[in-house]
Amino acid sequence: MTTTTGLPAFEGPMCPLPLSHTERIVLGHGSGGRMTHDLIRTLFQAHLGNPYLEAGNDFARLPLGIEPYSEGHLILSTDSHVISPLFFPGGDIGRLAVCGTVNDVSMSGAIPLYLTAAFILEEGLSIETLERVVQSMRQAADEAGVSIVAGDTKVVEKGKGDSLFITTTGVGWLPSHYHLRGGEQARPGDVVLLSGPIGDHGIAVLSARGELGFEAEVKSDVAPLNHLIQAVLKAAPHTHVLRDPTRGGLATTLNEIAQQSQVGIRIEEAAIPVRPAVRAACEMLGLDPLYIANEGKVIVIVPPEEAEAALAVMRQHPYGAEAACIGIVEAQPASRVIMRTTLGTHRVVETLSGELLPRIC
To answer: Which residues form the PurM-like C-terminal domain (predicted)?
Structure first.
């Protein structure tokens, strides 16, 4: 039997339409075809939608040439997030991805404006899980006051991706009256401030994995710090260094600053805030809180005449309520961090060697 076109007609049952797969990620979601478009439309745009994403391009045209962003510097930062488990006390991979990149941009003194997000999804990932993560990203972006304006999605075979990886890129604007360049501007006489207790994030992740051997009532400190940092810069406009002590903890970050600036940093163990539950967990596991990861803390190094104002404004912010002065910058020993212990002795605080806590960000 033939059709009017002269081509043979198909006989028997026709192939049904493909399944919608609304409960689990399958390889087809990364094909770039209808399933990819449906996932973007029904999940990502439903929660992250704005005019830039809705344009449907592989780029976002951003209005940075308008007031108040007509003078200054464009700041760009990117980071990948591979934490296990995806959800932990106080946060999840979605909030971590947004806050981590917002904070990286903010450490330059810039005002974060836009993010992009790329997702590596493993076949079999629950759609419900992905939606929870995306909703969390939206909440964190709203809190920070940024928009997620572009993205990408890929799907890998089961066993090749460990559920979900997220890469985020942040764009910010650094006003021309700020002259922060990084960790190389610490000067002898500067005061070292810390926005709050250390070690919360690393211990919360360990607890979520069940690797502590006991329950620790610790929540991750993951948070967007951009509003806190802008308040600090208004109170202390000559701030020299901003850094967030993430992987490698406070000790490693202070060493990086000391090496970049070729100065010595002297800290007081008794002045460094550590929650009792974090300290207890570290003692039981033989860990040092100085090397435990943080995701919502900032080190602020300021001239002595602005230290009091900076500390006061930090303590007025929810994410800096427990801020403390933990040390000073000295000329010598160059590139070294020295800590006076609670026993009154002094020890060299080295950079973290090896990987203390895997998969914490």
So the answer is: 187-338
In this structure, are 74 and 56 located in the same domain? yes
What are the C-alpha distances in Å from 312 to residues 131, 256, 273? 39, 26, 16
Give the Cα separation of 156 and 158 in Å (integer).
Answer: 7
Last residue of a domain, one of 151, 175, 199: 175
Interatomic CA distance for residues 351 and 117, integer angstroms: 31
Check which CATH number belongs to the domain holding 280 and give it: 3.90.650.10
Instruction: Please list the residues that pair with 74 across neighbouring strands.
Output: 173
Question: Does pTM top 0.90 for this prediction?
Answer: no
Going 204 to 208 to 212 to 217, the CA torsion angle's sign is: positive
Looking at residue 3, its pLDDT comes to 46
139-167 in b/e form (b: 16+ CB < 10 A) is: ebbebbebbbbbbebebbeeeebebbbbb
Give CA 297 to chain center in angstroms: 11
The CATH number of residue 47's host domain is 3.30.1330.10
Starting at the earlier edge strand, list the strands of the sheet with 299-302: 241-243, 299-302, 191-194, 324-330, 264-268, 336-340, 346-348
Residue 85 structural domain: 27-61+68-175
pLDDT of res. 70? 72
Measured between alpha carbons, how far is 10 from 120 in angstroms, rounded to an integer?
A: 40
In a shared domain, residues 261 and 315: yes
Domain limit, last residue, from 130, 156, 175: 175
Same domain, 194 and 122: no
Residues 38 and 153: their CA atoms lie apart, in Å, by 12
Sheet holding 147-156, edge to edge: 72-81, 164-175, 111-122, 147-156
Closest CA to 295 of 203, 201, 170: 201
CA dihedral (83, 88, 89, 95) positive or negative? positive
Of 230, 240, 260, nearest to 305 (Cα)?
240
**Degrees to nearest 5, angle at CA 208 with 203 and 209:** 100
pLDDT tens-digit readout, 33-90? 678 878 888 999 899 988 888 876 665 667 666 677 677 888 999 999 999 999 999 9
- The count of structural domains within the chain is 2
Q: Is residue 8 part of a domain?
A: no
